[in-house]
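Worked example 2:
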Amino acid sequence: MIKVSILKDSVITNQGSFETQEAANEWLSHHEGMKSFGEPAQTIQQQVELSPAVIAEDGSVLQEAVTEIQEVHIPGSYEVEILDITSQLAQEAINAEALAFLASTDWLITKQVETGIACPEEIKAERQAARDRIVK
């Protein structure tokens, strides 16, 4: 799973989650083409004069100007952050399952505290294993 966030001045203004990188790229390309987020970053080529031409008093050129083409990066008005959240979603599912098990067996612990009737050791071991699987 891919999460795409659009940030302006470090604040998320748009966000989308996609099953594949291709789907994320298509969404991003569509919106960049429409300039939905603002002006995208771009690289342009610009002719830069390294040394000026030398002109004689009569106007004749003694030496041509020396120039070169340089690439200039113009930053966009927004940033794109792309994250693969596959492992995060998998951990969230593990957490949810473990928390559901703990919730479903809480009554046994409450019963032990209130009545003194012991919670089965295998349930205690399973509860500890569930807590160990939870990652925040």
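The chain has three helices and seven strands. The first helix runs from residue 21 to 34.
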